[in-house]
Amino acid sequence: NAGVTQTPKFQVLKTGQSMTLQCAQDMNHNSMYWYRQDPGMGLRLIYYSASEGTTDKGEVPNGYNVSRLNKREFSLRLESAAPSQTSVYFCASSNGYGYTFGSGTRLTVV
Amino acid sequence: GDSVTQMEGPVTLSEEAFLTINCTYTATGYPSLFWYVQYPGEGLQLLLKATKADDKGSNKGFEATYRKETTSFHLEKGSVQVSDSAVYFCALSLKTSYDKVIFGPGTSLSVIP
Q1: Chain A residue numbers touching B93 (CB-CB < 8 A)
Q2: Which of B46, B95, B98 shows the shortest C-beta gap to A98?
Q3: Residue B7, pLDDT score
Q4: Residue among A21, A23, A99 with most chain B CBs within 10 A, to mutate
C-alpha cells in the first residue's frame, strides 16, 4: 500500500547514544516532515524539507539533525540522545492537500 | 500568530450519541482546514478537509463546514460508534514556502457501549 514507512517502530537508547530514524514515502510528495508527540504538548515540528535538497528547522530542532537523501527518504538523527528526547516521532509527507503520516517510532531514552 | 483552538477533552459519549467537537482558528492568510484522527498506537490519518469558505468536508459519517465569518470548522457526527474512539485534531494549512500545517492540541473521544 502507498504511504509513509517509518523504522524502527520501537527503540530504547541509553543517554549519549546516537541513532537515526528512517522515513520513506512512495507517493512522490515533495515535502516531508518530522514531528514529535508528547502528552500535553501536542504535535511539534522538528524539521521539514519543502523539496528534495532542502531542509529547514521547525519549532524544536535542538538535538536533532536531518537528511533529505532523495525525494523518497527523509531521516532524523539524534547525535547524543537525552531523556528529554523520549517521545513518539512521526514522519509525514504532503503534496499540498493534506499530510500522510507514518505509524510512528516510540523512542525511550534511559 | 496563526493558531488552532479546540474544545478541551476528554469527551465521553454513549454509542449512537451526537458528536460535536468545536474548532476555531486564527490565520493571517486564507487557510485550508482539516480534521485528522489518531487511533491508539497509530499515526494521524486525514479524516476530512475543506479548502474554501462554505465548503463541507465529509468522510465516514463525519462532517465539518468551513465558516469564514466565525473562523470555525466544527466536527460533527450524528451517531457515534465505539470504533470512533480516538483523538481528533483540527488543523489549518497555509501555503508558504512549504505546506505549513498548524495542529490543534487534539480532543480525546471515548465512546462507551
Answers
A1: 96, 98
A2: B46
A3: 87
A4: A99
Q: CA of B42: which chain A residue's CA is closest?
A: A103
- pLDDT < 70 stretches in chain B: 97
- The pLDDT assigned to B66 comes to 97
Task: List strands edge to edge, sheet with B75-77.
Answer: B19-21, B75-77, B62-65, B56-59
Cβ-based burial of A88 (10 A; exposed 0-12, middle 13-18, buried ≥19): middle
For A54-106, write each residue's pLDDT tens digit: 999 999 999 999 999 899 999 999 999 999 999 999 999 998 788 999 999 99
Instruction: Give the integer Cα–Cα distance in Å for B2 and A39.
Output: 22
Closest Cβ–Cβ partner in B43, B49, B99 for A104: B43
Quickly count: other Cβ atoms within 10 Å of residue A82's Cβ: 13
Report how far residue A44's alpha carbon sits from residue B84's, in angstroms, rounded to the nearest whole number: 25
